[in-house]
């Protein structure tokens, strides 16, 4: 018969995971947080002027697009101009957006 003996230090101590608080559920009146993509989503279909700048671009370093907000994601925005041309632009290049009408901002 084999006997097993345990003694302190026989096994390495286990690291404990840090305790994280449980996620807070959103409050009833608040649906989305104030991120640019959420604000653009709330203004889908509105005509805006989008200002972009690009570093180290020899062809052009800035671009202005006037068009309608079609969709927005965490890292991109899809804009369609009045002639039907669509642009998929990265948010990292977006400087600001102007609208000629009131924007939806119910946060």
TrEMBL record:
This is Spore coat protein GerQ. The lineage of its organism: Bacteria, Bacillati, Bacillota, Bacilli, Bacillales. Keywords: Capsid protein, Virion. Residues 11-32 are annotated as: Disordered. It comes from the Bacteria. The gene is gerQ. It holds the Pfam family Spore_GerQ. It comes from Psychrobacillus soli. NCBIfam families: spore_gerQ. Residues 19-28 have a biased composition (Pro residues).
